[in-house]
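Input.
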Amino acid sequence: MKEWKFICIALLVLTCNNIAWSQSKAQLLTTSLQNFYEKDSLPGMSVVLVDAHKIVYQHDFGYANMEHHIKYSTHSIQNIGSVSKTFIAVALMKSIEMGYFNLDTDINTILPFKITNPNAPHGIITIRHLSNHSSGIVDNPSVFPNVYHFDTGLAPYDTSAYKVLQDLGYLQQVSDSALGTFMYNYLSTEGKYYHQENFGKEAPGLSSSYSNIASALAAYLIEIKSGISYADFVTKYVLKPLGMNRSVWKLNKADLKDYARPYYKRNAPFPYYHFITYPEGGLRTNTYELGKYVMAMIKGYHGEETLLKSSAYKTMFTPQFSAQAPPKGISLAKRNKGIFWNLYTNGTIGHDGDDPGVSSFLFFNPKTGLGGIFLCNKYLEDKTAIINLLVQYTNEK
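Output.
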């Protein structure tokens, strides 16, 4: 009896020590995040860490709307930039399961117009090439910034901040249109934005060049085969199954109070905006709902068929480039590519995102089963410090 009493006391002490260690670890993380928030003069930010089943840490800092003193929270909605490309990956794998195409399908067998790289006219562009940024389709800097359209009548904005964007080429000189219409105009020889500079100089697969337009083209292929918009496809097969009911592709004017303003710097907001190539960077969501998404990716990696079959998850997270012969323009020292996902050499899988008034990062660690999300409503030129901090926190269970 005394022996059982001793064991119970020991277990109680051990449990209390673990709780204390966990609380101490969380407090240390919060302090580090607070320092980061203050050092970079962020308007607002939110961090959520999860395991496969629940949120294990969350903390919010600053304001979603500084002018109206609305706090930034895990439910504040904002664009997430190129983290949106991971949703294209899931949508592509779902489309493959549905028999629409495979990763090595020639895109010209799907498109209603033909795409030929004038610098490498005999190359065949496949869906795989689009998904790992080796298609030879590039973002022409004289065209791409102009796909952004600024909704200047929705809310007051700082004119000097908007002028910064205009000086960078965000001049709205591309007509607001459907995704497919823009793809035709940019990539077809008959299109009004077509130019040799829309393409790289190498044949598909030989050179890597990060391309937002090529990413959005992959989403357009899904539209063609499914017969519904990409937004509706992802909502049906990804967002709704995960209960991401507040995650949307279009700005809902009636819910502006729930949106984080995009800022150039504190007290200098940009106008709200939307853009034609929205699949590559335009998902509007929050850290709470992205937590559900990361949980699903952790489960999927380990074989649970939440959204996709286990074989589809395996393909999505398989390195696309060999160490012996990677394409030009990419270094494998820090990462390889999966299907849109980044496979980092530190063992994590994820993606970051940037846009005017947006910085984001989403990742998970397959070994520990932990992952996380970072969102803030200001562009950060360098996210290395916060990425390293969150990765360090999830290196141990």
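The chain has one domain: 43-393.
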